Please model this.
Amino acid sequence: MSTNPVDAVLVLSFGGPEAPDEVRPFLENVVRGRNVPPERLDEVEEHYHHFGGMSPINGLNREMIAALRRELDAAGYDLPVYFGNRNWHPFAEDTVTEMAQDGVRNALVFATSAYGGYSACRQYHEDIARARAAAIERLGDEALVPDLTKLRHFYDHPLFVASVADGVRAARETLDEGHDARLVFTAHSIPVSADETAGPPEEGGHRYSRQVGEAARLVAGEVGVGDYDQVWQSRSGPPQIPWLDPQIEDHVEALAGKGVTDVVVSPVGFVSDHVEVAFDLDTELAEQAGELGVRMARAASAGSDPRFIRMIVELIAEQVSGAEPRACGTGPRGGVGCNGTLCAPGCCEPPARRRPST
Ligand SMILES: CC1=C(CCC(=O)O)c2cc3nc(cc4[nH]c(cc5[nH]c(cc1n2)c(C)c5CCC(=O)O)c(CCC(=O)O)c4C)C(CCC(=O)O)=C3C
Ligand SMILES: [Fe+2]
Model:
């Protein structure tokens, strides 16, 4: 923890290309050092070109930041909000250097993921450490570079749950048979081995899938649906490596086979309608559903709801003024670390780098 008062907020996200010639270099950044086959990359490149080489993610994050600035002002917090990414401009390295030059000493980091796990949490701690190291190298003085404390997981925050639930309610209204529609929650699949090591070792793993499951349960409860499904999407990596299943496309096919005609799909695993949502669900899955004769309504993700922005302010208040964390679930929670230290020792070990167990 820093001894300086909190003097800024950094919104840290995944990043996405904003022009056709940025797509390939962006993808190379995403998969650097990972086991993603080139054919998969070619396929994903096409998803981005489907939208003119432009991911909506940066624009959506800029809108989120503008709303957060207004909400912080309204709550009486005089904190500038910065924007940095893992995989594309504005890179976190450049933003943290700029923060140092602006005299920021102690910032809170809101990472755009609700969950634990290597991809959803630990990698953001790594981004923070890398960005600070770059700024220290460029400025030649560690004392100039701000301390950065990542805010906690928020998958069970009542305002997150309420935002996702409202999306489900609105989607249901667009279907004639909406109230009988099958409710399906979806989140990004990860390798089974990564889920096994998600969370601190003493917790026994599976923090990511347990938190996603809990978020789905809480949202279903809020909209009064007892019977729902929670599945996975956007699998990559070689087919012989197991990832969390079922995939949503297989699941919708199975539902159609059972005679289901109406489906509401809620992307509870994501905070905004970026390419994973706009292509994998709104384009590909919607087309498949149409061919199967299934009417599909995609629920909005949480990030577009004003209560989501109020939630970010509450997470900030937890750190600035010791406000009591609000949570409506019973699952494991973590996410907080300063300057890239992990939530707990050995938390969310990436499987590929795990030491041999002999
Ligand atoms: C858990 C999780 C989240 C949710 C948490 C969070 O939001 O942070 C997430 C979000 C996102 N994933 C995104 C895009 C991509 N993810 C990829 C690849 C991968 N994702 C993984 C996991 C996750 N991903 C994993 C285990 C891989 C395999 C390679 C690796 O281990 O890294 C690839 C490479 C090609 C492919 O394999 O599909 C792309 C292009 C975008 C941006 C979309 C846009 O540009 O609008 C966003 C928000
Ligand atoms: Fe991803």
